[in-house]
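Re: that backbone. Tokens:
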């Protein structure tokens, strides 16, 4: 293990209040999003879309690293320039998604285990030689009746830790993504309990596998109520920094209704209780939150707690940055410039949130 290389990679990814762009959707997931918008589900359309992203002017001002899918990692611009070369010119580090997806956990209905450890050592070595400098593995845990089970918690934590150890052996910084899903009717408090339990198990296993904590970045969920939890029926003001967001609660998803300040408080308490101070950074996933709300919640955490934090607090968003641009692009060459402007704007909004300077007016 080259500890200094791992630490330097973490420092580069977390420098200057920048964050990560997770453009690592699998081909089936990308095709599903294209289908909803009437975009052809072809390798050419996926290449065009990803060229739109990596060639966005000024993207490196707010994005320090991008997580790529294997297909994207090997793709080129129309003129033959490798995407990795385009990213390097923008000062953006390339990363790679290396798990092979969440599959049903045997004898545990409704629970998943992430697979991909077989042959991982060799794949990681190859990705490092091709230019990757970090990797990502995603574990998903659902809240429900008796879920997550102890066996599901421990199996996913163990897989994450083994992945992380193999990454560090190969010189790649591991992104540790442990996601408690928003699907379900659970309360904010129940999400807090499960999130803390998940993170405790993850760090127990990371230590068991002798993972260098200074050479990782944690990618957790924010603590939020479930998508089908009870809906209040009134209108109230939701604070975010110096701004006030008035929402008609009856018209919103329950996770959108959760008070921005409360989400920030509960999420930060959970992290303080479970994440060692030696970890250099925490990069939140957006998990399907609306783009503006994900930014507002990240902003509140930094606005209120930045001076007290032992780790950098940033973002590793996918849809919360990409979806507004995808909605504009629609597979049309004529829409590329407009889509890139929106993509750059969302990235800049999230960098402002890392500084506690994001406002509703920016959206």
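Recovered sequence:
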């Amino acid at each position: 293990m080259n500890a200094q290389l791992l630490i330097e990679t973490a420092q580069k990814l977390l420098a200057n209040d920048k964050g990560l762009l997770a453009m690592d959707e699998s081909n089936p997931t990308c095709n599903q999003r294209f289908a909803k918008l009437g975009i052809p589900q072809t390798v050419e359309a996926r290449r065009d879309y990803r060229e739109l992203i990596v060639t966005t002017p000024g993207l490196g001002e707010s994005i320090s690293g991008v997580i790529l899918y294997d297909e994207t990692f090997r793709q080129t611009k129309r003129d033959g320039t490798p995407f990795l070369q385009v990213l390097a010119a923008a000062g953006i580090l390339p990363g790679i998604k290396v798990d092979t997806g969440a599959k049903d956990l045997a004898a545990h209905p409704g629970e998943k285990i992430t697979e991909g450890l077989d042959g991982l050592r060799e794949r990681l070595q190859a990705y490092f030689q091709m230019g990757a400098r970090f990797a990502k593995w995603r574990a998903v845990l659902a809240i429900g009746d008796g879920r997550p089970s102890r066996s599901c918690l421990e199996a996913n934590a163990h897989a994450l830790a083994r992945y992380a150890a193999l990454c560090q052996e190969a010189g790649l910084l591991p992104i540790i993504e442990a996601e408690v899903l928003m699907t379900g009717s659970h309360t904010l408090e129940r999400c807090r309990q499960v999130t803390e339990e998940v993170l405790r198990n993850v760090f127990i296993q990371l230590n068991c596998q002798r993972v260098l904590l200074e050479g990782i970045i944690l990618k957790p969920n924010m603590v939020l109520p479930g998508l089908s939890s009870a809906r209040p029926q009134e209108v109230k003001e939701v604070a975010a920094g110096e701004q006030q967001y008035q929402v008609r609660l009856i018209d919103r998803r329950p996770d959108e209704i959760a008070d921005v300040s409360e989400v920030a408080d509960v999420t930060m308490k959970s992290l303080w209780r479970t994440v060692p101070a030696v970890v250099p950074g925490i990069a939140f996933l957006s998990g399907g939150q609306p783009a503006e709300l994900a930014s507002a919640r990240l902003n509140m955490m930094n606005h209120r707690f930045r001076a007290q934090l032992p780790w950098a607090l940033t973002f590793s968003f996918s849809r919360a940055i990409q979806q507004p641009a995808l909605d504009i692009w629609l597979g049309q060459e004529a829409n590329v410039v407009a889509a890139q402007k929106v993509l750059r704007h969302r990235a800049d909004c999230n960098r402002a949130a890392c500084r506690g300077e994001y406002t509703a007016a920016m959206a």
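Confidence is low (pLDDT under 50) at residues 232-251. The CA atoms of residues 109 and 147 lie 10 Å apart.
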